[in-house]
Amino acid sequence: MMTIKDVAKKAGVSVATVSRVINESGYVNIDTRKKVEAAIKEMNYTPNEVARSLYKRKSKLIGLLLPDITNPFFPQLARGIEDRMQEHGYRIIFGNSDENEEKELDYIQTFIQNNVIGMISSTNFPEKDIYSNLKIPVVFLDRTSNDSPSVYADGRKGGRIAAQEIIARGSSKITVMQGPAHIKPAQDRFQGAIEVLDEMGITYHVIQTSSFSHTEAEQWAVELFDKYIDTDGVIASNDIVATAVIHEAHRLGKRVPQDLQIIGFDDIPLSSLLSPSLSTIRQPAHDMGREAAGLLIKLIEQDKVEDKIIQLPVSFVERETTRSIE
Length: 326
Ligand code: RIB
Description:
Layout: H1 4-11, H2 15-22, H3 30-43, H4 49-56, E1 61-66, H5 73-87, E2 91-96, H6 101-113, E3 118-121, H7 129-132, E4 138-141, E5 150-153, H8 155-168, E6 174-178, H9 184-199, E7 204-208, H10 214-227, E8 233-235, H11 239-251, E9 261-266, E10 279-282, H12 285-300, E11 309-312, E12 315-317
Parallel strand pairs: 1-2, 1-3, 3-4, 4-5, 5-11, 6-7, 6-8, 8-9, 9-10
Antiparallel strand pairs: 10-12
Helix pairs in contact: 1-2, 1-3, 5-12, 8-9, 10-11
The chain binds alpha-D-ribofuranose (RIB).
Domain HTH cro/C1-type: 2-50
Domain HTH lacI-type: 2-56
Keywords: DNA-binding, Repressor, Transcription, Transcription regulation
């Protein structure tokens, strides 16, 4: 790979001169500039972003930490972030935290070593010192903090809507699948759902789950029907778990939605392609990412920020795992 030294040698100038041309900083006479630009083009040299940032002491790098991009919800967040950041000339370096505090700390240190100027993190540990001690702005996304810049969707409202819709469509023997206790958005939607069920005097069952992973979703679905075979309505903790419930219901010979209605949470792209397609609560993930990026850019560029805590609305997406209202 061509380096800045190769370009300097080709153009017959110093590395410092090439740096000034690349970073558009400091005086370079027109003839020298043309020689350097010709050498860069001829050698197909791509400036190293970290080198650029070290020279300018002002990078355009943003660190992005997400729990697990094998869950289709998170790539949608990342896409919204990247689209907005690209529009403003910023670049992203990324890491999966796997909800592991040590791995998260390691990535944050890596980001700092790479001279990032801001961070976006979906974390279960927003109160940890590693974040409060950072010298760069941080925006929490989806999994957030009540007193730091954050962007999230209205999970409690989403849980309320799921319960209202499944009841309105005729379910009365309802099981609510509670998401992992350590994940705040999962608890918000769970509380919203059981609030409505309690308000309407409807008894319900709860299946506790400890992850959102594909590998474990099947076991939660099996446990649900082992314990509550006569369930006629399931409010799932997310779309992956809802998909496992559909799969297990079919294996047991249950008809969806005739015998059993199911509502998911997230509205990941695959949900519309399932058979039957999944009714769910849509989190505007791409918009959440864009909003988080926009908020971080304002903090980096020290623009006036009206709201540092941004909550986006959710919506019910009616598909084939719920019956239409007569
Ligand atoms: O599906 C993954 C879940 O974890 C989503 O519901 C999202 O809220 C994230 O926190």
